[in-house]
Amino acid sequence: MAKNDVQPFCAQIMDKAPLFVAEAYDNIEKKMKDIHLESFRGKWVILFFYPSDFTLV
C-alpha cells in the first residue's frame, strides 16, 4: 500500500468512540429505542456489534 493511501479507521486502545445514535433493544421496556452515546458521557461503556447480523443477544 502506498504511503499516501487512505486507511480505514481502526480503533486503538484508549481511543474515544465517535458520537453516534443507534437503534437498540431495551430489555427493561421491551422495545426498540434510539441510544445516544453522548447520554453515557462520564460512564464506562462497552460497545460491540456484528455487521450485517440482527441476531438478538
Automatic annotation (TrEMBL):
Signal peptide (residue range): none
Residue limits of the Alkyl hydroperoxide reductase subunit C/ Thiol specific antioxidant domain?
A: 14-55
Q: Which UniProt keywords apply?
A: Disulfide bond
**Entry's Gene3D superfamilies?**
Glutaredoxin (3.40.30.10)
GO MF terms, alphabetically ordered: antioxidant activity; oxidoreductase activity
Q: What is this protein called?
A: Peroxiredoxin
